[in-house]
Amino acid sequence: MKLQTTRFGEIEIDDEKVVYFPDGLIGFEECKQYFVLYREENSCVWWLQSVERPEVAFIVTDPLNFMPDYEPVLTRDDMETLQAKELTDLDFSVILVVPEDPRGMTANLLGPIVINSLKRVGIQAVIRDNRYSTRFRVAQPMAAEQSKGGENNAYS
Predict the structure, then answer these.
(1) 106 near 97, Cβ under 8 Å?
(2) What is the pLDDT of residues 117-134, one digit of tens each?
(3) What are the C-alpha distances in Å from 156 to residues 77, 95, 151, 153?
(4) CA-to-CA distance for 6 and 34, rounded, in angstroms?
(5) Phi-psi category of residue 83: left, alpha or beta, with phi > 0 → left and psi -120 to 50 → alpha
(6) CATH no. for 2-147
(7) What is the pLDDT of residues 73-129, one digit of tens each?
(8) Is there a contact between 109 and 70 (Cβ–Cβ < 8 Å)?
(9) So where are the chain's domains?
(10) Which pLDDT band holds residue 146 (cuts at 50, 70, 90)?
(11) Residue 117: C-alpha distances to residues 45, 57, 88, 91, 120 (Å)
(12) CA-based, 20 to 30 A from 83: which of 104, 109, 116, 118?
C-alpha cells in the first residue's frame, strides 16, 4: 500500500507490517492502524506512523537502551488484547519527546507501546509503578554511564 505521510512523503508499506491498536494510543484513540518505520538501519530510534492520519507519528525506542532494568507489568486484560501468553512474545518500546536541545529528551515509561508482532496487534499500556515516569530524562543515565568511562554516546 502507498501512504502519504507528513514527515516522510509518499512511502510504500507492506500490508503485513500494519499493526492494529484496538484502543488507539492515548490522545489518538481514533488512529487504530500503525506501522514501524526505520529511517536508518541499526538506528536506536524508529517511528510509529499512523496509517489513518499522515501527520501522526511518534519517535520511539527500546527502553532497555537507557534503562536495563525496565520491567513493566502488564494486566491480564493487556495480555488478552495482545493475544499473548508470555511477555517474551511481545516487543516493548517507549515514546520519546525530543526538544530542540536533545539533552532534555524524555521517555514515557508509564505508557509503553507493546506489540505482538506475530498477531500484528498492539496497545499503549498504562503502567502503575512509582519507579517510572511519563517524563523520564533519558540523558541522565547516559551521562552517568559516560562519567564512569562508558562509551555509550547517544549524541555522536
Answers:
(1) yes
(2) 999 999 999 999 999 999
(3) 41, 21, 11, 6
(4) 14
(5) left
(6) 2.30.290.10
(7) 999 999 999 999 999 999 999 999 999 998 999 999 999 999 999 999 999 999 999
(8) yes
(9) 2-147
(10) very low
(11) 18, 19, 11, 7, 5
(12) 109
| Percent share of the chain, pLDDT over 70 | 89
pLDDT bin (cut points 50, 70, 90) of residue 41 is confident
Angstrom distance (rounded) from CA 128 to CA 68 = 19
Residue identified by cell 506501522 is 35
The x, y and z cell numbers of residue 96, run together, are 520519546
Residue 134: alpha-carbon gap to chain centroid: 13
Q: Give CA angle at 99 (96, 41), nearest 5°.
A: 50
Asked if 138 contacts 145 with a C-beta cutoff of 8 angstroms, the reply is no
